[in-house]
Specification:
Four Helix Bundle (Hemerythrin (Met), subunit A); TF_FadR/GntR_C; 2 domains; two-stranded antiparallel ribbon; single chain; WH_DNA-bd_sf
Length: about 250
């Protein structure tokens, strides 16, 4: 992703093609357990009728799901759902489908453990490579977090843009390849319909992110790493509260 594209990032993307819609619906059905592990999916004719698509569109959708590790096709057996150990959990769509269909405390903990590996490292690299313009842009997004002038989705988008830009500024192409994972992780906050008060927005969240920017401006990699770890742990606590709140309602 290029830096100039960060400002256009949205929390929710519209599904514009028949292929994308079929992948989305089948992906949600698999991750949500409608089709169990090892079970065959319905035949092509049934799925074509259900989704109103051609055989070629359906086959391309199956190839996409197979690439994400969710299904495997075998001659004379059909297409079956694979074991969860084969699912590509860092895939943006697969992660988003988990949030859409419901996540557990254990899932959240594992997810935030990975964020703790990736994002503080990006922040440390950013402290060595960021320009004054980069810092100004990061500061702008940080100041939007918790703003009373923005609705909740816009605040989440500011958070998303901050963390994606932080990864890009770090300048490590391998970490940049994880942007989809980071985006889906933050998107999950909105998917789970956080209560802004529960999520700890406002001045506290702004201060956490400004601390990251200030460390980067000081060329302090260790400080940037620690500040990012603190922000991620706050996000973990908010996510766990959201899961607990959801469980109480069900």
């Amino acid at each position: 992703m290029r830096r100039e594209e960060v400002g256009e990032l949205k929390v929710v993307s519209n599904l514009r093609t028949s292929h994308a819609k079929v992948v989305e619906q089948l992906g949600l059905s698999i991750v949500g357990g409608r089709f169990g592990i090892g079970e065959p999916l319905p035949g092509d004719t049934e799925l074509e009728a259900q989704y109103g698509v051609s055989r070629s569109v359906l086959r391309e959708a199956m190839k996409t799901l197979a690439a994400k590790g969710l299904v495997i096709a075998k001659s004379r057996v059909g297409t079956r759902v694979t074991d969860r150990c084969h699912w590509n959990l860092i895939d943006e769509d697969v992660l988003r489908w988990h949030f859409r269909t419901g996540v557990t405390r254990e899932f959240i903990d594992h997810l935030y453990d990975v964020r703790l590996v990736l994002e503080p490292a990006s922040a440390a690299f950013a402290a060595m490579r960021a320009t004054a313009e980069d810092c100004e842009q990061l500061r702008g997004y940080a100041n939007l977090l918790g703003s009373n002038d923005l609705d909740w989705p816009s605040q989440v988008e500011a958070d998303l843009r901050f963390h994606v830009l932080l990864t890009i500024v770090g300048g490590n192409p391998f970490l940049e390849s994880m942007i989809g994972f980071i985006k889906a992780s933050l998107d999950g906050a909105f998917t789970m319909a956080f209560d802004p008060q529960l999520a700890g927005r406002g001045e506290a969240i702004t201060e956490l992110h400004l601390a990251i920017v200030e460390a980067i401006e000081k060329r302090d990699p260790d400080g940037a790493r620690r500040a990012t770890e603190k922000a991620i742990e706050q996000g973990r606590a908010a996510a766990l509260k959201a899961v607990d709140s959801s469980n109480k309602r069900t």
